[in-house]
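Hey, quick one: can you model this chain's 3D structure?
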Amino acid sequence: MTRIGTSDLDVLSLALGGNVFGWTADRDASFAVLDAFVDGGGDFVDTADSYSSWVPGNDGGESETIIGEWLASRKPSGVVVATKVSQHPQFRGLSGANVRKAAEASLRRLGADEIDLYYAHFDDESVPLEETVAAFGQLVEDGLVRHVAVSNYSAERIREWIEIARRTGVAAPVAVQPHYNLVHRNEVEDTIIPVAEEFELGLVPYYALASGFLTGKYRSTDVAGQDSPRAQGAAKYATEAGLRVIDALEQIAEAHGVSIAATSLAWLRAQPTVVAPIASARTVAQVPDLLAGARLELSTDEVGLLDRVSEWTPAGA
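Sure thing. Here's the predicted structure for all 317 residues.
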C-alpha cells in the first residue's frame, strides 16, 4: 500500500481509470472490470465528471453514475474514488459557484456523502486562483471532500495554489495528475516532479500506457483494421524511438514472466513521488496485467535501461 502525498489515503499502487466506463465499456462490462479489479486487491478508482461527454448521446457524468451504481450494489470496503471538476458540459470552469455545484452533482451520481480526492481537472485562468482555492477549501471544511488535488497544472500554478492555501489556512493539494509515461517524460521530470518533491505531493499519472502503445500492441503507425477508438492515439508513438522503448520493455517483461503493460507501469511506479499510475481496462481480461504492474519491482539496472532508451523520445513522439 502507498500513501497519497500527505493525505490519510493508503492505496494499492495503481488507479483504475474510469474514462472507459460509459464509452468503450458499457454498464455490465464496467461492473465486471470493477469487480475483477477489487477482487485482485485494487482499491483506487479515478474518474471525472466529464467522462464520457464526448460520446454521441452522452451528457457527461456517465462514468460517475456507473461507479456510483456499482458502489451501491457491491458496497466494497476501503475503495478510494477520485473525481474531477471543470470540463463537464454543464459545469465548465473553476469559479467558486461552479466548483460547488459540480461537486454536489458528482456526489449525487456517485451516491456518496464525500469525495475522497477531488481534482481541479484543468487550470482556469479566467478565474482568480484565490477564488478556486477557497472553493475547494470550503468543500473540505463542509465535509464534502476529503482531500484536494490538481490535474494538468503547471509547476508555477501548483506552487501558487499551495502558497494561497497556506496563507489562507485552507486545505492544500495532496496530489497532482500529469500526463506522464515512458514516451512522454520531459516536462513532468523537469518541472512537476521537483515541485511534488518539495511539497510532498503524490503523482498519479494519466495516459500511463500512452493510450495503449505501452502495451506493445501497436508496432506500426498503420491502424487499419484496429477496432479500438484509441488506436490512432497509440499508433502515433510507433516511431523508431518509440519502438526501441517497446523492445526494451519486452526484454524485461520476458525476464519477469509478465506483460509489457505491467513492466511499463512498474517503471512509472519507480519514479520519484509517483503513487499510482492510472490505467483503464475495458474488459476483465485486461485487469490482471494492470494489477501485476502494481506489484512488479524492477531492478535498478532495468529501470536504468528504460530510462536510457526513452530519454530522447520526444513528448508526443
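One thing worth noting: The chain has a mean pLDDT of 95.
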